[in-house]
Amino acid sequence: MGGSTLIGLAAAAIVLVIVLVAVLRLHAFLALLLASLFLGLATGMEANKLVSSYETGVGATLGHLAGILGLGAILGKVLADSGGADQLASWLIRLFGQRRLPWAMLFLGLLIGVTVFFEVGVVLLLPILLTVVRQSRQSMLAIGIPVLAGLSITHGLVPPHPGALIAVDAYHANIGLTILYGLLVALPSGVVAGPLLGAWLAKRIQPSGPAWSGAAAQTTAATSDPLPSLPATLLTVLFPIALMLMATAAQLMLPPGSAVRSVLIFIGNPVIALLLAVLLAYQVLGLARGMSAGRLLMSTSESLLPLAGLLLIIGAGGGFKAILIESGVGKAIADLAVRANWSPLVVAYAIAALVRVATGSATVALTTTAGLMVPIVARVPGTSPELMVLATGAGSLILSHVNDAGFWLVKEYLGLTVKETLQTWTVMETVLSVAAFALVLVLSQFV
């Protein structure tokens, strides 16, 4: 089968995912499974090989990510239940002062966003956000947009978030370098799409409705008990990131036979680093502050329940990626890209952006794009896999609209109409995406 035919069938499979998710409102897990079967059969794969390839892709993806996602969810839940997030907010407000509150909220979003999913971060920080808005009498958008920008940019670019981890795994990128480059890109991008854009929007748009009414009760509950100390909270949040960065430094600076190098690489593995961080959080934020083992068990169980759908989507995305590779589509696209002399960074960003706009899912966009781009990265010398992760992640953030669950979450929690959400949240996501990709292109000149 010719390369153009294979590419056409791959495009049809992607369109099928888009139609099933965005038009027919089918769950992304089912849409990806059906698209995988369609692509495999259409390209002439033998039925048994099709099924085995899909299962291998699912297993390879979840085998690497399931433990990381579970541990990350537990860590975020303990941080929420202990009041650690409130402690961070109070510290940042004291540090920055009233006039610089938007900047404080951006950094709060970045800090919390490193360890929790975007949706969890929104729910977690909403009571703090409303408290800050009420006390400072500043615009909801001036304070809220920076928080959302910080949460969103870390969710899309910085491991151990699932989207970034999918891309790290697919491109065989170094996770420590990806974190370092991701933070270098995330901070200035968040500044542009957060405090600067938030101040501009606040002068032009006033939310029509009240923010989510349940937040007041959450605020009261969150502040009724003594908060954990600031050093304990910061230690818990930054501990796994520090371990991963130390592992990268050991790989670069220590000889292969070094015992210290082996130990640092082991404890810097994302699963081990997050496991150690969870155990530290249990002790420092839980047991040391009087939280019972039963309460910690309940928090752990509650944190894992929402992961089912996400794991199914990620697994199905891994299966779809495997079919893209086994059917020869990846090689056909690689051949085309090499002949056309396209920049892999530009291609990855464009594909991720198109899938994101069509499906509303950053996870689907990242998984689909990574599956298509892996052969191209392998055949284009000098392409940084870490920057490929960031380019793909930047594309997956663009133009969130009505087919994105995050769109409705922000709308309801901030008391916006659909039009106002398009004018604020959608604009913010687009500015964030473009700014991040521009910085990736700048970094590519030095990496």
UniProtKB/TrEMBL annotation:
Keywords: Membrane, Transmembrane, Transmembrane helix. It comes from the Bacteria. The keyword Membrane applies. GO terms for cellular component: plasma membrane. GO terms for molecular function: gluconate transmembrane transporter activity. The chain crosses the membrane at residues 6-24, 29-45, 57-80, 101-128, 140-158, 179-202, 232-254, 263-284, 304-324, 387-410, 422-443. This is Permease DsdX.
